[in-house]
Specification:
The chain crosses the membrane at residues 12-36, 48-67, 79-97, 103-123, 135-160, 180-201, 213-234, 240-260, 272-291, 311-328, 348-371, 377-399. The protein folds into three domains: 1-129, no CATH class; 152-268, no CATH class; 272-406, no CATH class. 82% of the residues lie in helices and 0% in strands. It has 16 helices and no strands.
Length: 406
């Protein structure tokens, strides 16, 4: 349990660093910060966000909740988490100065290998659980998606090393990685943790059939829905698989609304703020799913994959709206924060308010570009949102430290 608390604190510090990098990127757009290489810094921002925040946070929760008690104290898990942490920090300090240079590539490759090491032992341990409930199925597929996603970076490395000019494969490799991270590992991890909490705090011993349906449909949707990102290839078989993925996603949403009536939310999240964050996370999942299926229509598909504000908005919708809001609700419900303190509540409201404000501005900016209207005011508003995210995340770190002291 001591290890779990350490990684919770560390992950929140990392979230604050991610927010600081985001603020710096927004500042670079507005001010002549010639000493900052925007492309290199955005690589550091994205790699550290994935490795230092979300992956570390989810795998820490997996280790200390889903792994059977006899195996939770394995030193192997802590070695792998430390390995991921140090390599994420290595990427943080190497990407800004050299981009995809030798040192950054070494750290990013080692990070992937540490996720392999974690995944191998985690899968072996959870397979020892008999009559595995939906949470374990989701966690299993989530980890498989984490491993599969690494094919994207390795393909990019091959293309760069061979100096190939295959722009189509380069683009597909990026989409492959992002899809199996965002719509695979991250999304399934959220529901794995959510169902585990429900199963241990109030769901009947017999899991409702609709919950099993949701689980299988969500897991089954990951592979075919990848082809929603490949519709620009204009092939019949890609479109057929994309339609299958969209149908499965719609089936997930229908099941989700039915599952909602069986969830003992008040027992899982006794704090009103935790329930509020949980609602925002699920709302983000619904919007994400609708945007995914909507890409079948050329107009929306071109916007989602062609307009920068819409792309950034979608990525942050999953990263901040679905995943970060859920993790914070989990932290609150498990006592990581002393939620009764006013400062803790203020930190949550500042951070959540900044996320909602940013997503709203990105949506308005995207619609404006679709209509042929562009305004420099959006960059200033997004800069203000970035300030709010950094201030809110810094307050979360302070709130965490105050809670630990109390």
């Amino acid at each position: 349990m001591k290890n779990k608390q350490f990684w919770i604190t560390t992950s929140l510090v990392n979230l604050c660093i991610v927010a600081l990098l985001g603020f710096t990127l927004r500042s670079k757009i507005l001010f002549p910060l010639n000493f900052i290489n925007y492309g290199n810094l955005i690589n550091a921002h994205s790699h550290f966000a994935f490795g230092g925040w979300l992956t570390l946070a989810f795998l820490n929760l997996f280790t200390h909740t889903l792994v059977p008690l006899p195996y939770q104290q394995r030193a192997w898990y802590q070695w792998m988490l430390w390995g991921m942490f140090f390599t994420a920090v290595g990427m943080l300090f190497s990407f800004p100065f050299q981009g995809y240079g030798p040192i950054a590539i070494i750290f990013s490759t080692l990070f992937i290998f540490f996720t392999y090491g974690y995944s191998w032992v985690f899968i072996k341990d959870i397979l020892t659980v008999k009559n595995r409930p939906p949470a374990y199925i989701l966690a299993f597929v989530s980890i498989i998606c984490l491993v599969i996603s690494s094919a994207g970076p390795f393909t990019l490395a091959y293309l760069m090393a061979s100096k190939s000019g295959n722009a189509i494969l380069f683009k597909d490799a990026i989409y492959f990685y992002l899809h199996f991270q965002y719509n695979g590992f991250f999304t399934l991890a959220v529901f794995a943790m959510l169902f585990f909490a429900a199963n241990t705090t109030g769901l009947p011993n017999k899991v409702p059939v609709i919950t099993k349906w949701f689980t299988w449909l969500l897991c089954a949707s990951v592979l075919p829905s990848f082809f929603l990102t490949l519709l620009w290839h204009s092939g019949n078989w890609e479109r057929t698989l994309a339609i299958l993925g969209a149908v499965l996603i719609i089936g997930c949403l229908i099941c989700l609304f039915k599952v909602g009536s069986t969830f003992p939310i008040r027992h899982i999240y006794r704090s009103l703020i935790a329930r509020w964050l949980w609602f925002l996370a699920l709302f983000s999942f619904v919007i994400k799913s609708l945007l995914q299926t909507g890409t079948l229509f050329p107009g929306l598909g071109n916007a989602v994959f062609g307009l920068r504000p819409v792309i950034i908005g979608f990525l942050h919708l999953v990263f901040l709206g679905l995943c970060t809001f859920y993790i914070l609700s989990n932290y609150i419900s498990t006592g990581a924060f002393t939620i009764e303190k006013r400062f803790v509540r203020s930190a949550i409201f500042v951070f959540a308010g900044a996320v909602i404000f940013q997503e709203t501005i990105l949506l308005i900016q995207g619609v404006g570009l679709l209509l042929g209207n562009a305004s420099p005011i959006y960059n200033w508003l997004l800069w203000l949102a970035a300030i709010g995210l950094f201030v809110g995340s810094f307050m979360l770190v302070v709130a965490r430290l105050k809670s630990r002291e109390g």
